[in-house]
Amino acid sequence: MVKKPRCILVKCKYHCSLLPKSYQHVFAFVFAMNEVNKNANLLPNSTLGFKICDNANNAIGAHFGIMNLLFKEQGNPINYHCGRRKKVMAIIGGLISQNSMQMTHILNVYKFPQFSYGSSDLALSDKTWFPYLYRMVPNENPQYDGIVGLLQHFKWTWIGLIVSDDDRGEIFLRTLAPRLLQNNICTAFEEVIPVLNTYWRENVLLNKKLSEIGVTLSSTQSNVILVHGDLRSMEGLRLALLVKEFDEMKPIERVWIITVQWDFSAVIEWDSFTPKAFNGTLSFAFHTNVVAGYEDFLETINPYQSRLYFIRQFWINAFMCLFLPYSQHIPDIKICTGKEKLSSLPGYIYEMGMSGQSYSIYNTVYAIAHALHAMLSSRSKLKAVADGGWSTHLLNVHPWQLHNFLKNIRFNNSAGEEIYIDENGEFTPGYDIINTITFSNKSLHRIHVGRLDLWAPDDKEFTINGSAIVWNHKFNQVLPQSRCVESCLPGHTRIIHEGKKVCCYDCVPCSKGRISVQMDAENCHKCPEDQYPNMNKDRCISKHTVYLSYEESLGIILASFALFFSLTTLLVMWSFNRHRNTPIIKANNWTITCILLSSLLLCFQCPFLFIGKPGKVSCLLRQTLFAITFSVAVSSVLAKTITVIVAFLATKPGNRMRKWVGKRLTLSVVIFCSLIQAVNCTVWLVTSPPFPEFDMHSQVSQIIAQCNEGSVFMFYVVLGYMAFLAITSFTVAFLARKLPDSFNEAKLITFSMLMFCSIWVTFVPTYPSTNGKYMVAVEIFSILVSSAGLLGCIFLPKLYIILLRPELNTREQVISVASIDDSVTVNVWGHARLLCCGPL
């Protein structure tokens, strides 16, 4: 058996006779109460009652309404309860923050649970001042993140900002401005809308201010305007837009972004709705969902059958009709039949869908009901329930006892969403982003295009479907742009000038070696080491590895020359060996000849260590092997020159140099000079050996595979020692150039050493000025040319006689008399014997 109401929930709201659209809060409240009372599993055998009162949309009205509710209407003096059968258990209200705060100051004294369904002020989260306030909507802090996320998503960096002329507007501006600046979003203008009073039409200054705001809105280059305020504070903005639209026949069409505090379609005066201006608006709204049966409930409402608060006054204002008998006294007036349907009203008067505030009211009623059910179901109350029943026990509980149960409730509503109040006394489902499409007949259509879900992971907290948005017809369904300047293309960076806003900048190309891959890049950055910028400097291209290889023309040419000179050297060695018993060969030191030809052959083989991709072994051998073999070759030339001089000196009677003539001197010079270079190379390899490396920086588009010399000092020591040997050999040969010419090689050695020194003197400055494969090519060229110079200058004249002029390769030709100076003549064949065989 359902008994009469025992406990009362109170819903305090705006004065319904002034704004029919806000009356949907009442309908959602009544709908939820009816569902709870019909639910057999929730507070069985008990009926929750309710009372709806008016707070007059201001703090004074809220204060008066609460005092009147708690004491005057119940007939009780303050702080006394006279046994009346009605008991207030919770209060739902108010819609705006000022009213919620004013109500809380009174309700805190009696520890009444108070539920705010529309106040997002951050101050209400302070449990020191508001310990018994529960908020069924999120605080406004996430809304700031949502605004910034929305602007960043569409790349809007040049926006207009309009706030209300009150504390809330100042706090909003002070909080949002730093966040916009941190994200490089600038305000083209910041306007404060004055609050209209009763005598605003006679206020000249107020009308002038509204006119100036209208001029600012119509002249701004920003296509996006952010608005923060509530119904009362934003009526001035609506009026400024209305004046422009009707006086100048030019509506201010922009992308309006409206915060959750204001429903721009809720109007007090019917003619103040401007559908052209607000078409395509994006609004933040408290999260809502589709509740089954709600629209059917709205269709059944009949003012003649309902006793809802101000229902007839709402009907009169909404449908512009009068009830009997009042309609009899006004001619041509429409009579309210009660058969009017709310669904027939235009959207700016009433919308059938459940708004965010209405959804919060719906969840609040269920939250209180579940808390009451949990309290009465607790073990400590079982005995009392068994004795007197639930409805009897409801009279024995107090409002303050409900708090512990409110903090622990968790249930799913009829829309399938989980409802719970967190440790801060808040239910934070987040915000919906709504796109409102308006039509010329003042009807409207709302599209859910995004969500700010505070329960989602960080990367999915803000979502928006840009393709579902219908923009104002001014933009022809093209994504509106709102920037101070054109975006910097990839490959450029922004330069901000002193005194200008960060959104008003110049674009300059990235410097050499740097790129930018996004629009409006703050800085250009370097590519990875293995990549380089393209021509537009907007992406990185992989570098290709280069080295002197056998596949390219330069490598093939150098390798071919090395092979050719190697074969030539082998030919010379074969020819000399075949004709070793001929006089011209016997006149030369055969051992020196063999050592010199062998070292030259190895020198011609060294380029093959330089061609190809550098490896660990090739890097260790290429410089050291070349240095030693070349040192042996130059030492052999030096030994040949010294031997010639010693031999001629030894032919003079009584000269002591005769004991040095022979193989001992020759081998001693070669071994000693070569051993010094071997020691240099050993020290080099032990202390800081060469190694393969990839040079990422010398060339923009290439990675150079090369050998790092390890110790540059040791490299030049080795090179310098070869230069020393060459200069010494050149000097000695130059001094011996006037010896008898029959077989004397001093002139040929002088010319070969001059050629050798010229090549390597040119090599020293050229080598470090090149890089990559061309550096290697320079060294190979120097090796080949200098080695070929020795081969050609010293051996080709002899090879010419052996192969082409055999008649000159006779003893008679070799045994000739030459003048060393004008007074001395010697037997040349004796010299030859000394050179080849030692003392006779």
Structure description:
By secondary structure, the chain is α/β, with parallel strands linked by helices. It has four domains: 7-139 and 290-420, Response regulator (Rossmann fold, 3-Layer(aba) Sandwich), CATH 3.40.50; 141-259 and 453-475, Rossmann fold (3-Layer(aba) Sandwich); 492-542, no CATH class; 553-837, Rhopdopsin 7-helix transmembrane proteins, CATH 1.20.1070. It is built from 25 helices and 26 strands. The strands form eight sheets. It has an eight-stranded mixed sheet, with helices on both faces. It has a five-stranded parallel sheet with strand order 2-1-3-4-5, sandwiched between helices. Strands 22-24-23 form a three-stranded mixed sheet. It is rod-shaped, with a radius of gyration of 52 Å. The termini are far apart. Mean pLDDT is 81; it is low at 1-6, 13-17, 384-389 and 817-840.
- Class by alpha and beta content: alpha/beta
Q: Cα distance, first to last residue?
A: 150 Å
Number of alpha- plus pi-helical segments: 25
| CA-based gyration radius | 52 Å
- The CATH topology of the largest domain is given as Rhopdopsin 7-helix transmembrane proteins
Low-pLDDT stretches are 1-6, 13-17, 384-389, 817-840
